[in-house]
Amino acid sequence: GESVGLHLPTLSVQEGDNSIINCAYSNSASDYFIWYKQESGKGPQFIIDIRSNMDKRQGQRVTVLLNKTVKHLSLQIAATQPGDSAVYFCAERDTDKLIFGTGTRLQVFP
Amino acid sequence: NAGVTQTPKFQVLKTGQSMTLQCAQDMNHEYMSWYRQDPGMGLRLIHYSVGAGITDQGEVPNGYNVSRSTTEDFPLRLLSAAPSQTSVYFCASSLVLAIYNEQFFGPGTRLTVL
């Protein structure tokens, strides 16, 4: 099986509940932020991004919140489904580079 | 479109051997990058390219070389493999590195160095 993420923080939620995944970023000059989902054995998949001059952006069942004062980003997933089980990463753009956080594993229980 | 393709999927090397990980995209993307992912860690940027003929170093470039002779291809070369390079390697591409320009990842190459 996939060995990546053995020591990742884990969030366990019941199917149908809302999930909130948090991320702290380091560079106050980053101009946009991205959330990725990575399923076992696959590459990361884009979920949603947000520009630094925004506080909130909504997608389909997902909302990203940005708090620049405390350099904090969160991803909210509404009505969590078994298919949402994965590792979630935030990333920030630093000029021509994307810098990734360490990730959070989301486990969804029936 | 095939998207981002990577070869091989799996590779075992002995210490000191060299090899090239291949990455190709058919979306005419200018920006391409290589990451490595180790257990318990996020992705770390090795090298990136903003267009053909242009490459630059990321967070962890030591022991790796890249070139970008065409828009489509961005190979990653390990010059003399070391056990510390055991990892999963991902290639990614996007039109540009900017908001609202989704970055697409390949399926990864799992490399073991003995």
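qc> The two ends of chain B are 36 Å apart (CA to CA).
qc> done
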